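Schema walk-through. Below, the input block comes first and the output block second. Nothing else is stored per chain. Lengths vary across the set, and this one has 457 residues.
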Amino acid sequence: MVRKFILFFLLAGIISGVSGQAKQNLDKLAAVVGDNIILKSEIERNLQPIIQENPALKNDKEVRATVLNQLITEKFLLIQAAIDSVTVQDGEVDQLMNQRLNALMQRNFGGDQEKLEKFLGKSLLEYKEELRPEFTNQQIAQEMQQKIVGKITITPSEVSKFYNALPADSVPLLGTEVAIGQIIKYPVFSEKAKKIVRDKLNDIRDRIRNGEKFETMAILYSQDPGSTNKGGDLGFQGRGTFVKQFEAVAYRLKPGEISQPVETEFGFHLIQSIERRGEQVHLRHILITPEYEPADLDSAKSKLDTIYKYIIQKKISFAVAAASYSDDDQTKINAGMISREAIPLDQLSQAEQSKPSLFTVVDTMKQGEYSLPQEFSPNAQSAKKGYRIVYLKSKILPHRASLALDYPRIQGFALQAKQKKVLENWVKKKRENTYVRIDSEYTGSSQIKNWYKAPGL
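--- output ---
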């Protein structure tokens, strides 16, 4: 309904565009903004994710004009950022690159870094250094944009006015949305089971220190489904990525150093530091989860059975039970709720990886119901097990967005539209004193006509 007014597509379409760029003549100058240039190759690269989503738009000139329009706005932001001395830290740029590249690698290469590097013809580290200038500019532009529109607020009357002004066919049709809570109990591993794992990891650590490769040991023994086939490699990550026990040790390690076994909610880890760059660390790890004794699982289920009974008998509320007894740190601080707002059901099915999935459980429930305590794994490929109660607080069937049911979402759309208008007015003022010239290939679009004062290049 309301498009983001600055879209940064960098990297989302790199894979589809890399191999073809060498064969195509894409280095033609598309536009000049002050002393900043925009190449045709930039437009085509940013266009790739749009085409991937909708191939019919491949030759759509208006879509190319939209991308160029966004790139020109970015250049204006960069010009002002230079005047205002707006900068970003290397760690911020690293974090953005890691997030995008990890998602890209997972989507196109099954998370295999070696396959990605083979495709690129260079190491991931070399590739990141090539991308760093563009990512730095992207971050600076975002910081400048935030400086311009970040303090803008919107009133309820403005939200209502925005919604009432929408044409009927522009009000989005929303799919089924659910508000879900959960209470989780994990077994407590016996000291005997923990000792077995610690001894095994200490033996592996000795073998590595005596010359065997960490990567080989990870492939042979690690139970982390996300990194085992990469030799335990976790890539560069920033603070806040890992659970606190893991992170506390990881940031103390020197490059090349291997930790003692570290206990977290996932099991026990050996952690090796490869490199540190500011607040970014490049790590490998080996994860081994202790084996449950049948009595451990029975104990967890028994505790949750009691909690379930108290909730059903209204002796305790779900919110209090979650806050007091759940082992899920991410939801217990939110009264057991997975999100403060309703979640699209189809989004839940894509994002949630537990087995059985929350989607599977919720799909058969009615609003206001609690599921019986059920065994599950937090990751479909994980050896970790526990029990959980799922609460379907609300279920909203497909409908046109309304103020009554969807106010937070409409408020977001309205705020975004207001910010867009403020940014457009800001750019309009800056344009009066900034040289802009655009190639004639793009000047036929109504989106572009407002930018230039001179004929096309």
